[in-house]
């Protein structure tokens, strides 16, 4: 997949850490939205855009091996 972002990662560990961190951001945002909506500073579009970013930086497993 050709991503509009030209991201390069030094190694597989950094790549996976980045994906995991972005996923944790989304999960935390969703939980906060459900549990304490009055404290929420993000919008549904922020979560959508973070997920979109995750999809853009996902690369073929063959490339990172």
Describe what you observe in this structure.
By secondary structure, the chain is mostly helical. Helix 1 packs antiparallel against helix 2. The longest helix is centred in the middle third of the chain and has 24 residues. It is elongated and about 40 Å long. The model has no long low-confidence stretch (mean pLDDT 79).
Number of β-strand runs: 0
The poorly predicted ranges are none
Mean model confidence by pLDDT: 79
How big a fraction of the residues is strand? Answer: under 5%
- Tell me the structural class: mainly alpha
Query: What spatial form do the alpha-carbon principal axes imply?
Result: elongated
Order of SSEs = HHH
Distance between the termini: 16 Å
Number of helices, counting only DSSP H or I runs of 4 residues or more: 3
Largest sheet: none
Radius of gyration: 14 Å
Helix content range:
55-70%
